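Example 4.3 (complexes with small molecules)
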Amino acid sequence: MNEHHPRRHKNLIDSFKDAISGFVLAFVQERNLHIQMFAAIIVIAFSLIIHVSVVGLMIVFLLIGGVISLELINTAIERLVDLITQNQHPLAKAAKDTAAAAVWWFSVIAVTIYVIIVWNTLMD
Ligand SMILES: Nc1ncnc2c1ncn2[C@@H]1O[C@H](COP(=O)(O)OP(=O)(O)OP(=O)(O)O)[C@@H](O)[C@H]1O
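Answer. The structure with adenosine-5'-triphosphate bound is encoded below.
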């Protein structure tokens, strides 16, 4: 049991390092991620200023986490497609555009829910 413990611990740290470096790489390369991170800071600050409820804040964090996670998966799919082919291909286009649509769908829902949260807070 004990002999496995240091290895598990190391793997956990390595996974964490890989995840951080993946995020940094995507952040450096993806302009969308800059915009989303900037928007996230504004949204959190504004939510605190207007005193959004604790549950409201938790939903805000979930929405931000969802948008950023989907953007990272979208970036991963873009890289995989570019790795598979540098040529124009309808399936490459379909893969990239579908991944982009996933981010778009979640973002539209996230904005809609945030508008409802703000409206509800200000009308309280
Ligand atoms: N190999 C390909 N074959 C066909 N169409 C492609 C291919 N690569 C990209 N495209 C098309 O060009 C668009 C732009 O591709 P690109 O890889 O530059 O993504 P992007 O617009 O930079 O995405 P994001 O803005 O999310 O970073 C894609 O959404 C897709 O419609």
